[in-house]
Specification:
single chain; 387 residues; 9-stranded mixed sheet; 11 helices; 11 strands; globular
């Protein structure tokens, strides 16, 4: 059913205003990210500047120079540098992420996705940043990144990020998965299926998830010329088989691999059979349904693109501030979903109707900017200094 652009009979009062949007955002941040302020500026003003910079995708310097009557960028950095405990800040940010989620997430079984989001790091490696730098294949002119692992709910109209973790240099993949699963424990949600990227295809992760008895699904990395996992790619029919993944460092693990055969049918100018191999545990569905179901995992990539629309730009090498700016973007995306679900919707006996086209993430950003600029108007003229 196609969602109409506007309700058939508009309500006499607005369902949502820019002031309510801003107040909801500030309430969430002030409640879960306390900070002691000194001098003239209040905590509300500090967060208003951060939200404005995030909504515009600007740096703190651009925001403070473009608004009248607000704090300077040095004032903001002075207060933000009070966040000096990475573990404590990370816990507060995860609490904020989970505080404003649509109703129903805590009920029933949910499909979850876990992945790594890499943000390029340029310049000389500093002692402060070194423990949090992650090496990966070259992207955007660098092999060094700040890496953030996230846990994401895959559910229509309720796609939210529940946890974020700043990956440390020496941290294992098992430790990353364990931290994220432990972080979402207070929600008491049940995992219907866990989707992981092929980067998690290794003996320790598979063995650990099997020990936890969590239903999971991940693509297998195709290795070898004729042996290894490449030997599984044969025939014209999809099939399921047992496979022993071997590691000189971590030993062996037995797992179930489902090989899905599809036909390209001229897509992108290619023909013939295309193979997909998936490691599964406690997942029972038809092969092609399995392949289509895993494609829903790419919703977490969409969350990264949405996050980039409202992420504060910065060149700082401080990993704590980096985490704050990235997590703030995810919090804004979660608040957008929350406002859609609780304000821009029609409650009815059937599943509620969400008017997503009326309130896009860009519209929310505009609401936040307009509400903040009433108090701190933008510059409208430039005056040159006199002699």
């Amino acid at each position: 059913m196609t969602t109409p652009l506007y309700p058939l009979s508009p309500t006499p009062a607005p369902a949502l205003t820019d002031e309510i949007t801003l107040q909801t955002t500030l309430d969430c941040l002030i409640e879960h990210l306390p900070i002691e302020t000194q001098g003239y500026w209040s905590i509300e003003t500090i967060f208003e500047m951060l939200v404005h910079a995030a909504s515009r995708g600007q740096s703190l310097e651009q925001t403070t120079r473009g608004l009248q009557g607000g704090p300077s960028s040095n004032d903001l950095r002075y207060h933000l540098n009070k966040y000096d405990d990475m573990a404590e800040l990370q816990s507060q940010l995860n609490t904020a992420l989970q505080s404003r989620i649509p109703s129903g997430i805590r009920k029933g079984k949910q499909r979850l996705a876990i992945d790594l989001n890499l943000i390029p790091y340029y310049g000389k490696v500093t002692p402060t940043a070194a423990p949090y730098l992650y090496r990966s294949r070259a992207q955007l002119g660098t092999c060094t990144f700040f890496a953030y692992a996230t846990a994401y709910v895959i559910r229509k109209d309720k796609r939210v990020t529940l946890a974020i973790h700043a990956v440390q240099q020496q941290q294992t993949l098992v430790a990353i998965v364990t931290y994220l699963l432990a972080t979402i424990t207070p929600l008491h949600l049940r995992i219907k299926r866990l989707y992981l990227d092929r980067g998690f295809f290794c003996v320790p992760v598979i063995r650990w998830l099997q020990a936890l008895d969590i239903p999971f699904l991940m693509p297998a990395i195709i290795r070898g010329k004729q042996a290894g996992t490449r030997a599984l790619l044969h025939g014209r029919n999809s099939y399921q088989t047992s496979y022993t993944l071997r590691s000189q460092l971590y030993g062996n693990v037995d797992c179930t691999i489902q090989v899905v055969c599809t036909y390209r049918n001229g897509r992108r100018g290619q023909h013939g059979i295309q193979y997909f191999a998936y490691v599964t545990h406690r997942v029972w569905m038809h092969f092609h349904t399995l392949h289509q179901d895993y494609r829903a995992r790419f919703g977490i990539e969409t969350s990264y693109r949405l996050k980039n629309q409202c992420r504060i730009r910065t060149t700082t090498h401080n990993p704590i501030l980096r985490l704050l700016f990235v997590a703030l973007a995810f919090i804004l995306v979660n608040l957008w979903v929350y406002l859609l679900w609780h304000f821009v919707c029609l409650i009815r006996p059937a599943p509620r109707l969400i008017y997503r086209r009326l309130f896009s993430l860009n519209q929310m950003s505009e609401f936040l900017v307009h509400a903040i600029e009433r108090e701190f108007p933008p510059l409208q003229a430039i005056f040159l200094p006199t002699n």
